[in-house]
Amino acid sequence: MAFLEARGLRRVLAQAGLLAGAGAIGALAFYLAFLRDLPDLQHVDDYRPPLSSRVYDRHGALIGEFYTERRRLVRLEAVPEHVVQAFVAGEDSSFFEHSGIDYTAILRAAWVNLRAGGEIKQGGSTITQQMVKGLLLSPERKVRRKIREMILARRIEERFTKQEILYLYLNQIYFGRGAYGLGEAAQTYYGKDVAELTLSEAAQLAGLPKAPSRYSPLSNPEEAERRRLYVLERMLEEELIDERTHAEAVATVPVLVSSRNLDDFEAAAYFTEQVRRYLFDQLGSDLVLRGGLEIHTSVEIGAQRAAVDALRKGLTDLDRRQGYRKPARRVAADEIPAELERLAEENGLAPPAKEPDEEAEERDESQLAEAGSEEPPELPRDRSLLGVIIAVDPDAQTARVGFAPHAEATVELESVAWAREADPSKAPHPVKKIDRVFQRGDVARFRVLEADEESNAGAAGQDPRVTLDQEPIVQGALLCIDLESDEVLALVGGYDFGRSQFNRVMQARRQPGSAFKPLIYAAALERGYTPASILWDRPVVYVDETSGFIWRPRNYGRSFYGPITLREALVRSVNNATVHLFRDVGVDFVIGYMRRLGIESPLNRDLSLALGSSDVSLLEITRAYAIYASGGRRVVPRFIRRVVDREGRVLVEDVTLGDSSELDPEAGDEESQLASVAAEGPSNGDRIDPVQPFEGSDLDGERVIDTEQAYLVTDLLRAVVTDPKGTGWRAKALGRPVAGKTGTTNDQGDAWFMGFAPQIITGVWVGHDESRFLGWGETGSRAAAPIWVDFMREVLKSRPVREFPTPESIVFARVDRKTGLLADAASTDTVFQSFVAGTEPTESARSAQTDSQGRRLLRLDSF
What confidence score (pLDDT) does residue 155 get? Predict the structure, then answer.
């Protein structure tokens, strides 16, 4: 008996051992499957999610963002109670009661999914589980992930308070449209802070986390509205709001913002890209993209928008002067209906898909016809649209353009009179017949005319009027510096950042042409010349002794003036007189002078340098002109004021724009074509290496030239604008003191205008990326100056009219325009000219020595 009992005991123990072993194996398997690599909750304790770094203009307006996830943190105390209640009611009504898992909700969801044949129709996740999934786990729908999620949810609830869990949840979840977290979602959808959200807006946002794409108020407004109403109903059922509040919220449909500062982001794109490149280099991409930095810059977004508008208008006007470059394609007449269907999709004018109508079969034919009729879609005025020419009416001089079925417009000859056959070598002339521009089936881009552009604008019942919208192939750049703060006010590196990210302010070097002349004349003033000194404008031939190259510089008008004052030579931008002056001043002296001005690019050691044959960047030459505009002081333009991290620490401060050496060394063939243009004129191939590099902020404010010399150059450049014969005459349209100079290369491949008011300096360049002929008559005065004028008119509007300050040692004298001597009764053409005291002429025109034929004897050996 004892034996049997002992044997039974061994059996029991063996079974217990097997069970224990099985349990251990099961526990080990469970551990390996679900617990072994669970995320460390320390990550939650140190919650530091990726935050967007934001770029602000000088007044605090948002102009750009850098991010991997667009998010802004919001403290729970800053979230209104009704916003929290909306999320709790919509996502997890028992949040404040459960311990991380709502078993009732899980069973309910399982039953719904079972009835759906196993398809996942409903989830039972709590807010805690959703936070765990978003922060610690992947979003995949698998049993293993769900079990791990539940385990972590329980642990989270044991370690954190409900308020802390809500904080993590509201800042972590995705709301669609690229917005992570409640703070970013409020800005993205409504353009406001979380504290400003209404109950209706909170309900709409609370409906998004479940399925951001499905319930998006942009792509699925009907589903979004159903979800918003569901959240409000749940709030009413949970007695979080009363009947009256519920009714008011239901009736108040949220109004979405059209864009998130996208217009400002686009306008500032070249500038913010320069900011990004610098910060990536200095701070690293990870900190910039994820660190939530506040980047305060110098730019003024109003000026930046004005710069973009002026540049695009100027380039569009130039492009139209070259003519119409033919339609994108042409379709046969019988293909036009199919083409309209394609264009409807491309233009975004196709009607939205509708839900099937179960009652459609019961309608009669007339009802169906009525249901099928649609209102013509409204053509957007803010973008270019592809259209097809449906018909051309030579008698009415109009054409009909289709953009989609039932979406048509009229184009009139008056608005496309510029659209002659493209030929840059010929002078522009208007087209006089509409059928010379369009044929039926032509597919091209059009833009809806604004009311004040239409010939019969606003007439009741009229179709919209459109015009051709040909995107320019010519490029341009603009840089504006605030002389009162030495900060970049506006920077535009091309026509469209989306089309080309190459920054033509910083990265391109081009021949400045005549825009280089004032720097030569300034060097001459330092050598002892005065504005009344006599130069010789006469034909000359230079032969390069090494290469044998023969160079015959010529004036733009092919005429020569003989003896001419320094002032008059600059006002008229006389080439030969400038070359003679450059030779007399000396190549080495001029190059050394250029280095002092901050011109670091290699310079030709030959006489062609006088006419701007060496390539420089827009930044370099604008910086050089700024020395005269600021009274002789070096201007190092700042573009970043400070960069602050999420803890409020200043990481970077007072950053200046680099020089043109920032050309991308890795640039491909396309960009390398922008970096150089062959110099015209004699050259032995030698280049001058940069001397005493421009060191930036260390030299900021240093006096480079005398105040008196700076004023003389400024006064001469004012004469370029005010004198009837001056090449800068277009700038007079501003009606205030300004100074400036045009620039045109010999082959008319580049056009410039450099100019300034006492407070602001702006440089403009226009040209093709691959240097080639700009077009008939496209000089700096015609191609670049209008851009400068349009921009400066806008940016100076809010600034007081000021005169250029005159140094005490400057005196004025009325001189004879031709001889440069003091004017007297015999003088018929005089100008009021400034001089440094003691250098003004003392001899009058009448008392000057003359030869036997009455011509004045000039002593050039004194120069």
Answer: 76
pLDDT one-digit tens code per residue, 838-850: 999 998 877 665 5
- In the beta sheet, which residues pair with residue 642? 296, 653
The average pLDDT across 605-631 equals 94
- Alpha-carbon distance of 254 to 36, in angstroms, equals 46
Sequence-ordered list of residues with C-beta below 8 angstroms from that of 230, at least 6 positions apart, any chain: 90, 207
**3-state SS record for 401-433:** EEEECCEEEEEEHHHHCCCCECCCCCCCCCCCC
For residues 324 and 422, the answer to whether their CB atoms sit within 8 Å is yes
Q: Is residue 436 exposed (0-12), middle (13-18) or buried (19+ Cβ within 10 Å)? A: middle
What tokens appear for 855 in the block? 């011509």
**E strands in 376-532:** 385-393, 398-404, 407-412, 442-448, 466-468, 475-482, 487-492
Contact predicate 804/768, CB 8 Å: no
CB-CB contact of 388 with 441 (8 Å):
yes
- Is 446's pLDDT higher than 90? yes
Instruction: Give the pLDDT confidence score for residue 116 in this predicted structure.
Output: 56
The SS3 assignment for 386 reads: strand
**Is residue 491 helix, strand or coil?**
strand
Rounded to an integer, what distance in angstroms lies between the CA atom of residue 54 and that of residue 77?
Answer: 23
**Beta bridge pairs of residue 488:** 481
Q: Is the CB of residue 483 less than 8 Å from the CB of residue 763?
A: no
- d(CA 756, CA 710) in angstroms, rounded, equals 13
Residue 456 has pLDDT above 50, yes or no: no
> Which value, in Å, is the radius of gyration of the alpha carbons in the chain?
37
Cα–Cα distance list, 54 to 67, 174, 227 (Å): 9, 19, 32
CA dihedral 628, 629, 633, 636 (to 10 degrees): -110
Q: How many residues does the chain have?
A: 863
Tokens of 846: 């009448």
Better pLDDT: 661 or 708: 708
Nearest to 416 by CA among 466, 451, 381, 456: 466
CB 774 within 8 A of CB 767: yes
The enclosing H or E element of 63 equals strand 62-66
pLDDT at 636 > cutoff 90? yes
306: Cβ–Cβ under 8 A, 6 or more apart, which residues? Answer: 490, 790, 791, 794, 795
Query: Is residue 289 predicted with pLDDT exceeding 80?
Result: yes
DSSP H helical ranges for 119-257: 127-135, 143-159, 162-172, 182-190, 199-206, 221-237, 243-251
List of residues 6+ apart from 2 with CB closer than 8 A: none
828 burial (CB, 10 Å; 0-12 / 13-18 / 19+) is exposed
User: What pTM was estimated for this model as a whole?
Assistant: 0.82
Residue 191: how many other CB atoms lie within 10 Å:
15
**Structural element, H or E, at residue 294:** strand 294-297
Mean of all residue pLDDT scores within the chain: 82
Does the pLDDT of residue 363 top 60, yes or no?
A: no
Stretch among 450-454, 602-606, 849-853 having the lowest mean pLDDT: 849-853
Can you tell me the distance from the alpha carbon of 466 to that of 316, in angstroms, rounded to the nearest whole number?
A: 16
Burial class (CB in 10 A: 0-12, 13-18, 19+), 600: buried
Q: Which of the residues are catalytic?
A: 91, 514
Cα 277 to Cα 60: distance, rounded to the nearest angstrom: 21
Contact 483, 630 (CB under 8 A): yes
Cα–Cα distance between 137 and 152 in angstroms, integer? Answer: 10
764, 175, 108, 147: which is closest to 495 by C-alpha?
A: 764
Phi, psi of 660 (to 5 degrees): -75, -5
